């Protein structure tokens, strides 16, 4: 079955699919407890991951938010979130890239590939 599916996809599509599946696993372990199984967030405390416009506009900041956390006020779906998000400094660039592919291609988002080589670029530009 996997051979049939993979024969219908380009190498780029296969790579994105691998990132997505691995990113789902990282998300379930590190992010889901706060952001929810469907990216719905946690009431007034934790923002949802369903705001496609926010995700697109801030895609280059996501690696830093995941790695270093943030205490920056975020406006998601027009609502302010001010609670601090802890970072995950133990995550590798690959973990971060994979979870970014997962969250930016789930919950109503469709943003395509985010290669692990982009993580270090985005992290260096956020400092």
Task: Describe this entry's structure for a reader.
With 127 residues, this protein is mainly alpha-helical. It has one domain (11-126): Cytochrome Bc1 Complex, Chain D, domain 2 (Orthogonal Bundle). Helices cover 51% and strands 5% of the residues. The protein has 7 helices and 2 strands, in the order αααααββαα. The protein has helices spanning 2-7, 11-30, 32-35, 52-57, 62-68, 93-103, 116-126, and strands at 74-76, 79-81. Strands 1-2 form a two-stranded antiparallel ribbon. Strand 1 (74-76) and strand 2 (79-81) form a beta hairpin. Helix 5 (62-68) packs across helix 6 (93-103). 26% of the residues are buried. Residues 18-107 form the Cytochrome c domain. InterPro entries: Cyt_c-like_dom, Cyt_c-like_dom_sf, Cytochrome_c-type_DH.
Give the key terms.
127 residues; 2 strands; mainly alpha; single chain; Cytochrome Bc1 Complex, Chain D, domain 2; two-stranded antiparallel sheet; 51% helix; globular; 7 helices
The H-level CATH homologous superfamily, spelled out, is: Cytochrome c-like domain
The biggest beta sheet reads: 2 strands, antiparallel
Unreliable stretches covering 5 or more consecutive residues: none
Classify the beta-strand content into a percent band. under 5%
Q: Give me the count of strands.
A: 2
Helix content: 40-55%
């Amino acid at each position: 079955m996997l051979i049939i599916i993979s024969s219908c996809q380009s190498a780029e599509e296969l790579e994105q699919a691998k990132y997505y599946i691995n990113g789902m696993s990282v998300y379930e372990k590190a992010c889901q407890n706060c952001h929810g199984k469907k990216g719905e967030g946690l009431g007034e405390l934790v923002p949802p991951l369903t705001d496609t416009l926010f995700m697109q506009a801030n895609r280059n900041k996501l690696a830093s938010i995941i790695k270093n956390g943030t205490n920056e006020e975020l406006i998601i779906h027009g609502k302010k979130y001010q609670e601090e998000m802890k970072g995950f400094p133990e995550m590798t660039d690959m973990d971060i890239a994979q979870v970014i592919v997962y969250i930016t291609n789930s919950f109503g988002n469709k943003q395509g590939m985010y290669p692990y080589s982009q993580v270090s670029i985005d992290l260096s530009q956020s400092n």
